[in-house]
């Protein structure tokens, strides 16, 4: 999913009024501001060729684009590049007078709607948002997934179906697994029907379950009679140590086994980590690419500092061994929230932890 990051917003201004507006916004956000040579001033970047060339280049490099100018011009420039709402950057257009901020592309997953509201608030403009759930003052499944950094099987289809149900006033239940209840308050859940227990469901047209479990605690008859969608927040981290000759197949199988033994859906995996001395082991990079998660590295001094919290002696030796890596790595990645036992097999160790920051 493409989530707008404050440090990756490009702003384009074509007129003196646009430059003045860009100056105001730069005091609140770390923007990369582009303009023409004749309007260039300190802190701005020149167009690389034309406005169109620069905007098209930025479309591939930034998480969000803000154009102070005409919406028609913006549409014509980016039209050939628009591909997928799950990966396209957010695109927002502001008129030169600063009266309207318009969410043009990737409103939910890309974050254009949220960015539109924020920018409008900064300059006292009217936010213009046209997505159906927002117009009806309801949440959206893709927005909820973004807020939770969560995954779902066949996400595109599920978001389309659930969002249509919400705007059609159908009852879509929302159930939170106990470990994730603490995150409910910070999420937009307008329009969903709260479900406190899966043992006594109200009358529903569909059910969304927010859980990291590999299987839902629902009777078979309910699973077949009601459309059920499982939204899986990515919260599980895995500290891993392994020998240089370890195969990717073996590592994948053992990680899947460790997740299953702790009843985690594999989609709940957030990141893997190891010691810095393992940075050149291709299999660990391949594992991260396989599951599309970050690969984090920790120095011997970092691991040594936290060895005292763990039960095994001598966690980090002068020469780092695979057998003493996974626990302190998982400890650091999860702020000490380790889960289950460490898997040790065929020169591989895997320790899981839970991270609740996203």
From TrEMBL:
Domain called Cobalamin synthesis G N-terminal: residue spans: 54-134
Name of one Pfam family that matches: CbiG_C
GO BP field: cobalamin biosynthetic process
Record domain CobE/GbiG C-terminal: where: 236-352
UniProt keyword list: Hydrolase
Listed SUPFAM superfamilies: CbiG N-terminal domain-like (SSF159672), CobE/GbiG C-terminal domain-like (SSF159664)
A GO molecular function held by the record: hydrolase activity
Residue ranges annotated for the Cobalamin biosynthesis central region domain, each copy included: 140-227
Superkingdom in the source lineage: Bacteria
UniProt-listed InterPro entries: CbiG_hydrolase, CbiG_mid, CbiG_N, CobE/GbiG_C, CobE/GbiG_C_sf, GbiG_N_sf
First and last residue of the signal peptide: none
PANTHER family membership: COBALT-PRECORRIN-5A HYDROLASE
Designated name of the protein: Cobalt-precorrin 5A hydrolase
Native source organism of the sequence: Hafnia paralvei
